[in-house]
Amino acid sequence: MIRYSLFTKIVLLIIIMLIPVVFLYSYSNKMATDTIVSELNKSSSNQLAFFQSQVNTSIEELSSWTNLLIHDPDIESFKDIYMDSDYLNLDLINQVKRVQNKLGIQESSSNWRSSLTFYSPSMERMITEGNAKRYDPKELKEEIKPGWQVEKVQRLNSEQYLFSWYTVSPYSVQDLAKANSIVKIEFDSTNLQDMLDKFKSNGRRDPFYYKPGTGVIYNRTQDIAQSAKLLTQLKFPEMNDVDYRTVEMDGNIYSVHTVLSQATGWYLVDYIPLTDVLAPIEKSNQLFYGAVGTLLLMSFLAAYLLYVQVQIPVKSLIRGFQRLKMGDYSVRVVSKGRNEFSFLSERFNSMVEQIQELFEHVYLEQIQVKEARLKQLQSQINPHFFYNCFSFITSMAKLGKMDAVVAMSHNLSRYYRYTTRQEKELVTLKEEMDFVVAYLKIQKMRMNRIDYVIEIPDELLDQPIPPLVIQPLVENAVIHGIERSTDAGFIRIGACQDPNGMMRIVVEDDGLGISESRLQELRGRLTKPMDENSGCGLWNVNQRMQLRYGDSSYLSVDTSAMGGFSASIQWENTTRYERNDHNHGHLVS
């Protein structure tokens, strides 16, 4: 199972808490944006439709003038006038003046700049507010078409569009020569530009008129390049009378609205960059996400400070307790700053220091007790052998065997030199065996039938061993095995080491041996404290080996294959001998 640190948990918790907030804000922001865009589209469409209706109303009003004038009595009276000369008489001039006045009054009744023209087929003359002249019937016939006619003209160094509407009386006449009268209303695109300028001043982007195959009427402050680029992305024949769509140009999204004029067939086009409209929302989004980012960063900083001030000191204390649990009393916790954890660290260090001092004190006391016990056991061994040796010297002196006395004294001096000057805790197996050989020589002088063999590989002679642990086993074989049997006299000493580093030394004899019940009793006494009825030799060796090497070391007793008694000691050695190809050895730690 994955374990997370306090810092990771706090960061994950903060992120999990912020995710719903960001999600809800994003969702509500999208809903608000969609609502604003939808309402903006409705408002724009309504405003364009209203503006277009105003333009259509004005155009329809202009077109209705021709119907009114066509039925005017003064204009209708011209249908019966036929001229024989090119000059007008006084009555006719007055009648023309009345018509011109009516045309002027009608033209001035509208805010739009327009002009009215009356055509009299019978007189072949056209009358305007300021003129009355002949016209070419053929040209007029080519100009008259149903609906509004549009013509591009050049005026005042600029291109304009001229709109014209013809009304013929009677309406059903097909031949213009048979018509009673014709009235034409005419206006140019400057009127539409005035309307577009006024419409733009109310907050629109760049409204303009467009008719496929005819041209474009821009407002006077139009961004012509931008509008022309926009037109290339619109497909007008496929558009509805009132249409809305979004167009991307130069990395910006534009909301484009179009309304078709049923009167003229021109599209009113207006576009608004949604980037500008949604800029406050985008700014609000940036502020919100900036605030979230700042909050997240500050939360990370707070989590990091909490991690440094709490988690790291806690981990340090935990590691300290774990090392203390493993027995490492040298562990110390280093704390930074002055806070509650520094106080705990100081108390921990003080506690561990006191525990270490206590353990060192107890450990030293245990070592001193062990050393005292070792010296006590060693001192118990020395007098035991000392009594036997002096008993032999006394006997030899009484018998007058001076050579035996000298030899005994010489070997005895070697023996006591080894025991009394032995200050080392460990000696080599070779030194111990030299001491054992000296002891056997002394015993052989007492009993000439004693013979012995030592089967110890040369490579084991350098192995360390506590002093005076083999001699008591040999002494036990001599005293309790060979001395009690007149036929016995052979002692075998062997040593070996297994691959796991366990050392084993065996001392056996061909003496009287030991019964099974006595053997079990002896094994039990080796594990109990020594009393007055217990012998001290074997028990001392067993106790010394366990004090030195622990419970894995012990002395074991058994019957010998030679019929006598066998005693062996084994222990786990700290050094192990490895043989080389030439059967020579060396010690390895």
Summed up, what is this model?
The protein is of the alpha+beta class and 589 residues long. Helices cover 51% and strands 20% of the residues.
Work out the helix count. 14
Structural class: alpha+beta
Physical arrangement of strands within the biggest beta sheet: 3-2-1-6-5-4
Oligomer: single chain
Structure description:
By secondary structure, the protein is an alpha+beta fold. The protein has helices spanning 6-70, 73-76, 90-108, 137-143, 190-200, 224-231, 274-277, 279-325, 340-399, 402-420, 429-446, 471-482, 516-526, 537-549, and strands at 114-120, 125-127, 132-134, 149-155, 158-169, 181-188, 208-211, 215-218, 242-249, 252-260, 267-273, 427-428, 451-455, 464-465, 490-497, 502-509, 554-559, 565-572, 576-579, 585-588. It is built from 14 helices and 20 strands. The protein has a six-stranded antiparallel sheet. A five-stranded antiparallel sheet has the order 8-7-11-10-9, with helices on both faces. A five-stranded mixed sheet has the order 13-15-16-18-17. A hairpin with a 6-residue loop joins strand 10 and strand 11 (267-273). The protein is rod-shaped, with a radius of gyration of 66 Å. It starts with 5 loop residues before the first helix and ends with a strand.
